[in-house]
Amino acid sequence: MAYRTTVETDIGVVQIVCTDRSDGDFAVTQQASEVEQRRSLIQEQPWTWLRQIHSARVLEVTHPGEHSGREADGSLTRSPACPLSVTTADCGPVVLVADNGIAVVHAGWRGALDGIVEVAANRLLKNGASPVKAFVGPTIGSHAYEFTAADLRPFVDRYGTEVASETSQGLPALDMAKVIEAACAQVGFEATRPLACTSEPNRYSYRLRKEAERQATVAWIDG
Fold it and tell me: What is the extent of the structural domain holding 200?
């Protein structure tokens, strides 16, 4: 069953939902009608869904479903009843909640290193808005996320030594949760720990099981 939580803000209650296997596959590469049906069971308004390209591109949404199918890795809105979504199978889905709106981003290692979280946050916080919190959905844990020492170096240089970790076999690893936490902190957001690790059997994981299916994280402001 999908996980749901809420955050109260000055502009209304923000609803956040993270799906799991029991909710089905939300990968945008499958038959559109099937995905639309699954989306409507969670939020009947048209979702803004993205063709994710591991970038730092963030789109602004003013009405339900705007920019659906565009290439980007994040979206933001200050309007009610505009569901924003990303799909993941190891990367970090992050919901940024400010007192004037929300942003939802797909933070894979490439996008994180390019600053996707910071880009979304800075656009959301322009004109004097204040951060409320950052919610992190299911994300792969460092115990299963092997990286070479050379590939870890740019993350350590940008976010500090705490983002370097080890796998359960003692090999160098990236701690995506720490990367996201550090990125959020740099722009004034306190991040939750990830909802779950994608190694859990009720989550999809590309790295661990080569699964093509995707779980969704969606958020909207109640209208």
Answer: 3-221
Structure tokens at 134: 């950052």
pTM, two decimal places:
0.97
The domain tally of the chain equals 1
Supply the CATH number for residue 212's domain: 3.60.140.10
172-174 vs 131-136, strand pairing mode: unpaired
Q: What is the DSSP secondary structure assignment for residue 127, as one 8-state letter?
A: G
Dig out the tokens for 82 from the structure.
């505009």
Helix axes 116-124, 176-186, angle to 10 degrees: 30
First to last CA, the chain: 24
Short-list 97, 91, 102, 94, CA closest to 53: 91
Residue 175 identity: D
The answer, yes or no, to whether residue 223 has pLDDT greater than 80, is no
Tokens of 26: 């939300």
Distance CA 69, CA 154 (A): 31
Q: Which DSSP helix (H) or strand (E) runs through 114?
A: helix 109-114
pLDDT band at 1 (very low <50, low <70, confident <90, very high): low
Contact 26, 87 (CB under 8 A): yes
Which residue is it, tokens 């502009």?
11
DSSP labels, 154-188: HHHHHH-GGGEEE-TTS-EEE-HHHHHHHHHHHTT
